[in-house]
Design a protein that fits this description.
Helix 1 runs parallel beside helix 2. With 120 residues, this protein is α/β, with parallel strands linked by helices. It starts with a strand and ends with a strand. Helix 3 links the parallel strand 3 and strand 4.
Length: 120
C-alpha cells in the first residue's frame, strides 16, 4: 500500500459528529490504498467497548457501528490508548473484536516515519 495515515479519534458519544467523521475519513483512506490506523484516545476509547458504537448514528452518515465494522473488515487497524481505557474503568472483556489495547509507543512507532495524522 502506498503511504499510511493515522486518525487520532478523541470523541465517542460525547460528539457523534466527530466520532463518525473520523471513521468516514479512515474508510476513505483505506479505499485509497493507505495503511490506516485509528488511534482511540481520551473519550474515543469508549468506542472500543461493545455496544457503544451502536448508540451513535449522526444524521447524513451511515451508523458508526457499520463504519467501524467496514473499516476493521477491510484491514484497518484500531488501537486503543491503554491509560485512557483504564482511566475510564472500561472492560477488556467487552472489547470490540479486532481492536487492540496498546501503549503510546505503538502510536509513536506508526508515526515515526513521518506518517500524517489527523485528529477528530
Amino acid at each position: 500500500m502506498p503511504g499510511k495515515l493515522c486518525i487520532n479519534l478523541t470523541r465517542s458519544t460525547d460528539d457523534p459528529d466527530r466520532a463518525t467523521v473520523g471513521f468516514v475519513v479512515a474508510n476513505a483512506a483505506l479505499g485509497s490504498d493507505k495503511e490506516t490506523m485509528v488511534f482511540l484516545s481520551t473519550e474515543g476509547v469508549r468506542l472500543a467497548e461493545q455496544g457503544c458504537a451502536e448508540t451513535v448514528h449522526e444524521s447524513g452518515f451511515a451508523p458508526l457501528k457499520e463504519l467501524m465494522t467496514s473499516f476493521l473488515e477491510a484491514g484497518g487497524l484500531v488501537y486503543v490508548c491503554s491509560p485512557c481505557f483504564k482511566k475510564r474503568g472500561l472492560s477488556e472483556e467487552r472489547l470490540v473484536a479486532g481492536v487492540k489495547i496498546v501503549g503510546g509507543a505503538k502510536l509513536v512507532e506508526f508515526l515515526s516515519d513521518g506518517t500524517p495524522c489527523v485528529s477528530f
